[in-house]
Amino acid sequence: MRNPLTDESGDLLVLDTKDIADASVVKTVEEVETLGQEQFETFVKERLREEKTKNMNDPMKKNKLPLFRSPCQREPSKDKQQISSLKSDCAPFSRLLISYQTREGDLDDFFKHKNQGFPPSISQNGKLRLPGKKSDLTDCIQLLSQPRTRAPTPIDAAIIDGAAAINMVKPTNTVKTFQEYADLVFIPYVKGQLQHVQRLDIIWDGYVPNSLKATTRGKRGRGIRRRVQSLTTVSKNWKEFLRVDANKKELFGFLAEQIPLVDFGDGKQVIATKGEETGGKPSQA
To answer: Exposed (0-12), middle (13-18) or buried (19+): which is 274, by Cβ within 10 Å?
Structure first.
């Protein structure tokens, strides 16, 4: 676990797993004592002092605070969200219709106008409707390209989408730490791709906040934030780990730093991006 006193990041984390608490959990830790004191004073005021507005046997309201094991409240299902949206649309529509009939208005003219706050063609439950799968775009791309039955030869260089690679190359049961993942899983994968080319470029994704792509990723769910270090234990749920953009940023940077430390053989060169920077590992170095 190393020395916890050397961590100056200011994050609230679990010492052994390096899981970083969600912002809502940090808020709970900071405010739970004050909240408990306020509820205690309210209990005494309402039940023990002269006011006595409540009976001693009246139940107290349960606190549903975000905790380490349950940092986020589950969002309602799509069916419940749709029913709630229909109810919210139905209430003002009925009132407008009744008021329009009492004023002897033209109903044909009334039904020409939309009664929803958001156009249903581009929105879903009050939010902008976004594509759920990026793979749907491949149908459009195939119409603009010529299919090939075999790869061109010879190939001097290849480009790897790093984000797609780590989704395919998952940790095995023998991998315990991120250093082992890099040494036993990711680097062997890079060496395998380098057998047929002289140069290999690894491009890591960048994650821009408040973008359409970030919103699309948010629809896939949320995971647990974990600090990526060489001795940190790899998450057992790899898919959930990759749902957090900060996890992927640290993992991309960590793997990019491992590239210059590996000897890939004579005449081979591997170049990887790290944020906005680019670094390489020529075979002679």
So the answer is: middle
Q: Do 56 and 84 sit in the same domain of this protein?
A: no
Structure tokens of 284?
């002679």
Answer yes or no: do 113 and 175 share one domain: no
User: Tokens standing for 48?
Assistant: 């023990």
Question: What SS3 string covers 203-239?
Answer: ECCCCCCCCHHHHHHHCCCCCCEECCCCCCECCCCHH
Please report the pLDDT score of residue 284 as a whole number.
35
In tens, the pLDDT along 118-156 reads: 666 667 666 666 665 666 667 777 788 887 787 777 888
Residues 61-95 as b or e (16 or more Cβ within 10 Å = b)? eeeeebeeeebeeeeeeeeeeeeebeeebeeeeee
Residues 192 and 224 in one domain: yes
| pLDDT (tens digit per residue) in 39-78 | 898 888 888 876 778 888 888 888 888 887 765 555 566 6
Question: pLDDT value at position 65?
Answer: 85
Q: Which domain holds residue 175?
A: 155-282
**Based on the domain organization, do 175 and 236 belong to the same domain?**
yes
Is the residue at 15 inside a domain?
A: no
Task: Check whether residue 190 and residue 219 sit in a common domain.
Answer: yes
Number of domains in the chain: 3
User: Position 104: which residue type?
Assistant: E
Q: What is the pTM of this model?
A: 0.65
On whether residue 16 sits in a domain, the answer given is no
| CB contact at 8 A, 35 and 27 | no
Query: For residue 121, what pLDDT is reported?
Result: 67
Mind giving me the DSSP string for 137-193?
A: GHHHHHHTS---SS--S---EEEEEHHHHHHHS---TT--BHHHHIIIIIHHHHHHH
Q: Is the backbone of residue 84 left (phi > 0), alpha (psi -120 to 50) or beta?
A: alpha
**What is the residue-averaged pLDDT of the chain?**
79
- Classify residue 147: in a domain, yes or no: no
